[in-house]
Please model this.
Amino acid sequence: MSFFLWNILLAVNWALLTGEFNLENLIAGFVIGFVLLFILRQSFGQTDYFPKVRKGIGFFLHFFWELLKANVSVARTVLLEPRDKINPAFLAIPLEAKTDAEIALFANLITLTPGTLSLDVSTDRTVLYIHTLDVEDVDALRVEIKRSLECGLLEVMR
Model:
């Protein structure tokens, strides 16, 4: 059984043992279960669960920071820029993501970020087409999206 499933089972057991099945107890149980599994990890053999959890938390914090920056940028663009100075663009982003889950999650992360919208995936699933509200350098934005979102996501998912 995978460590993630063990961690979920320990969180549910914790919530049931405390007598209150709510989000706070599930989170507390997940953290307690994670620590317990970390302490007992030698008994279960090798796993990449713990580094992946660390990478996942790091990626979540990075995405949250990018989300805040994008919100400020869109607000500044909408409120302060004259309409004729806004440069919307369509971009084709070559994909390193291969599975449906990787592509869907990457596209959704782009859509969640204010000022960008995922439009379509090529039929051969090698290119993602997006729209952006305001961009000065299309190539720099393409590189930034691949570096900050796709690489981090693939590091967590693979």
